[in-house]
Amino acid sequence: MFKSKIAGIGMYVPSNVVTNNDLLKYMDTSDEWIQERTGIKERRFAHRTDETTTTMGVEAAKIAIERAGITPQDIDFIVFATLSPDYYFPGCGVLLQRAMKMKEIGALDVRNQCSGFVYALSVADQFIKTGMYKNILVVGAEKHSFGLDFTTRGRNISVIFGDGAGAVVLQPADISSSSGILSTHLHSDGEAAEILAMYNPGTHANHWVKEKVADFNSNEIGDMFMSHEMIDNAQNFPFMDGQSVFKKAVVKFPEVIMEALQQNGLQTSDLKMLIPHQANLRIAQFVQQKLKLNDDQVYNNIQKYGNTTAASVPIALCEAWESGKIKEGDLVCLAAFGSGFTWASALLRW
Ligand code: UT7
Predict the structure, then answer these.
(1) Which residues does the annotation mark as catalytic?
(2) How far is the CA of 151 from the centre of ligand 1 (A)?
(3) How far apart are the CA of 29 and the centre of ligand 1, in A?
(4) Torsion over CA: 91, 92, 93, 98 (sign)
(5) Distance 309 CA to ligand 1 centre (A)
(6) Per residue in 155-170, pLDDT tens?
(7) Residue 201 Cβ contacting ligand 1 at under 6 Å
(8) Percent of all residues in the chain with a pLDDT value above 70, rounded to a whole number
(9) Does residue 203 sit in helix, strand or coil?
(10) In degrees to the nearest 10, what's the CA dihedral of 128, 126, 167, 87?
């Protein structure tokens, strides 16, 4: 048995900066509202046609692979987390494999939204531990700017999200080595699946909830999972009951962080850095308070990038490391909560 360690990390954000004031062109909102409720000052939006979720993932992956001291041809498995894939299918993993001219290796897409990267890291960790693979590329990437309702109707969601990508290369480390992933913890509760969801396109046919979430023409074979009526009625955009998500998040974040620490016989005071999924600065501050962490024990960059869902944890981890806030031997906790609900943590020694 081995343990796995992060051998290289990279991130990519598009150059196009979109400030809160820039959004005023499209909807009734204000810089003050957005900053006060979320902490966000600006986000990045991908180039409309030249950048996709996959191409941003590729850019982050190139850096992670180079920093690991290997080449794309050395990668023997890909795990790609996103909720905004280039295609409904196939997934981004194979598009990245093609774009990076990798060997005919396995490619797996993870659809766990905000906790996607931590789930993906956990999957990769298991493959490394068993000795099945030696260089796994784990990517989290999103191009939200292509799939949001940028009218006042969608403002509670569209002001929050941004585009970007992060990636790590996982490699085996000797089981006796002090650095590496100590444990991962995955959870879900589908009871509230519809509270933060994009229902359409989908095959649900209004099966799960009383209030219909899609307008179909009829009930006949040949019905589409995307109809003109759905588009006319803005049913092709994500839905979020923000307050319900917020309430659950502030309970589950501390829980899953403590679970990771306790399983390893460690305490919050041992933590060098908590990298929370960048959902909302207020959520991160609440978690910090609840766990009595100092300001320099929590890394936040939602102010610059907004919520980049599956990309937020690897982007924040990469920035924290690049700026020297994480050094060899430091105890780092990654934690995420979001749609599903799913939530997860990973405790690692850098
Ligand atoms: O990573 C995915 C997981 N997602 C999350 O973790 C999100 C968690 N939830 C949140 O971050 C917050 O609930 C939001 C930031 C989404 C919303 O903040 P809130 O304090 O819960 O606001 P609200 O939804 O209760 O809306 C308050 C008011 C409403 O107006 P009325 O009904 O009080 O007149 C909204 O219509 O703010 C209005 N509003 C806005 N006003 C200006 C909603 N969005 C906007 C906006 N600009 N963008």
Answers:
(1) 114, 277, 307
(2) 14
(3) 11
(4) positive
(5) 17
(6) 999 999 999 999 999 9
(7) no
(8) 99
(9) coil
(10) 120
**pLDDT at res. 225:** 83
Which atom of ligand 1 lies nearest, measured to the CA of 282? Answer: 11
Please tell me the predicted confidence (pLDDT) of residue 210.
84
> Which residue is closest in CA terms to ligand 1's atom 39?
156
Interval 202-257: pLDDT, tens? 999 899 988 889 987 667 787 778 888 899 999 999 999 999 999 999 999 999 99
Domain definitions of the chain by residue range: 3-173, 199-236
Q: Ligand 1: does its nearest atom lie under 6 Å from the Cβ of 148? A: no
pTM value?
0.97
Q: Left (φ > 0), alpha (ψ -120 to 50) or beta: where does 189 sit?
A: beta
Token pair for residue 347? Answer: 């405790």
Q: What pLDDT score does 73 carry?
A: 98
Residues β-bridged to residue 156 = none
Hey, which CATH number is domain 3-173, 3.10.20.600, 1.20.1740.10, 3.40.718.10, 3.40.47.10?
3.40.47.10
Read off the tokens for 235.
Answer: 């049913």
Cα-trace Rg, the chain: 20
